[in-house]
Design goal:
Elements lengths: L12 H27 L8 H4 L8 H21 L6 H30 L2
Helix pairs in contact: 1-4, 3-4
Length: 118
């Protein structure tokens, strides 16, 4: 798997910060893209598709957690197979997992904010 280009030498504190920032930017861009795909863009709630499960009694954050378990299981299967025929696909899966974990935190933060106003 090729490491992303960050413009500085690997193995230094600066490159680690730059690499993490590049990944954070990548996750944010993926979130914007997926949000636009689900909402059509504009000011619509980017988590509306996850929150819809509340209509059937499922906490949205718990639903997203279930999706992370599913994706993690898929990634685990790939690692157990001992081969990566398409490492880019594995990387994409990990980026998607990072985004889903952040969405869980955002949904929990919303829940906590709603609880603290009661």
């Amino acid at each position: 798997m090729k490491r992303p280009e960050v413009g500085i030498e690997w193995g230094t504190a600066d490159v680690n910060d730059a690499a993490i920032q590049k990944l954070i930017d990548e996750v944010a861009a993926l979130h914007r893209k997926k949000s636009a795909d689900y909402t059509g863009g504009g000011d619509a709630d980017p988590f509306a598709n996850y929150k819809a499960v509340a209509e059937v009694g499922i906490e949205p954050w718990l639903y997203v957690f279930g999706r992370t378990v599913e994706k993690f299981g898929r990634a685990k299967t790939w690692t157990r197979a001992g081969k990566f025929e398409c490492p880019d696909t594995f990387r994409e899966e990990l980026i998607d997992l990072a985004l889903l974990l952040l969405i869980i935190v955002a949904l929990l933060d919303e829940t906590e904010a709603a609880c603290s106003t009661k």
